[in-house]
């Protein structure tokens, strides 16, 4: 792999060289979405400039090329996740669509009255609400798994809540608000003892550390391209082979059929069965470029760098009077959600924006996790591989000025 350094990779991101409100951009909103390297931008532009075609349709050269690119993207995602085969990868719009797909297909077929779906309190709304919707229809129950004060999942409570009624555990591999990285592999092994399936939300994990779905033994694994340096509107769902084989189609339409007749319609094999209609072809092209770009580096070096940057940020933020970081779980990604005494989160974000620093303020689509800390809203700085300690210094200096101005 190529040597990794944040200074080196910054050169690949044109947007990191712009200014905001007269200051060089400091992008600390990576939990919401990551910026795109020129390799991704050029791949998408190259597709529309020289290779645009629909796929799987018509035997002309460009349709064949587009099909190869699309299926090449699927194979790359399979390799990236350690999936046994490209057939286990379904392209979706993102994590949200992946979870809804599983709820509406697998959930509808497998949930019934008295069944439990276990969902930790730290989950993103997109890993709560789809379960509430299908639970209402099937008369199953969504059971929250409580948190420890430091933001870890209460594993004793989890073990107690698991039972033969548990059909599914839906858990994030990394929390977007507390940064917590739960022991998903151990949680999955425990769930499997009760015959429950496990869906892992990898939205915040994939950009930060290598993932192996077979090692996790996940039944479902979802992520969004846009949090992984790829375009918006494209994501992937991994489904374990034996689970995928039994799944009913989701949406109906073109591409997911073998033959259609008013008497009887037969279906295409998985994963195409799950991909009705024209897919986001340029999105897959961009995703392939993003995966090629990211995996060209030593990913362990990236993870180690992010861990050290996170430690630096924690220490630096501790010097700001009245600042409190939410969650102190030892295993975590570089997400710092914080409050600042005397200032509401929207005011903090607005102040930082005037210095060109982008952070998010609000409930981060994780209201139950914030409620665990008695909060409705907080500010969040989320770091990526291209962030530097100088940027952390700028964040801290700006927050200190805000406290002095008060
Ligand atoms: N899960 C987690 C943990 C997330 O952070 C997000 C995005 N903030 C999602 C799911 C939803 O992702 P998307 O909006 O791309 O579907």
UniProtKB/TrEMBL annotation:
One of its GO terms (molecular function) is pyridoxal phosphate binding. Its cofactor is pyridoxal 5'-phosphate. Keywords: Pyridoxal phosphate, Transferase. Residues 26-395 form the Aminotransferase class V domain. It comes from the Bacteria. InterPro entries: Aminotrans_V_dom (IPR000192), Cys_dSase_SufS (IPR010970), PyrdxlP-dep_Trfase (IPR015424), PyrdxlP-dep_Trfase_major (IPR015421), PyrdxlP-dep_Trfase_small (IPR015422). It catalyses: (sulfur carrier)-H + L-cysteine = (sulfur carrier)-SH + L-alanine. Belongs to the class-V pyridoxal-phosphate-dependent aminotransferase family. Csd subfamily. NCBIfam families: sufS. This is cysteine desulfurase. It comes from Streptomyces chattanoogensis. The lineage of its organism: Bacteria, Bacillati, Actinomycetota, Actinomycetes, Kitasatosporales.
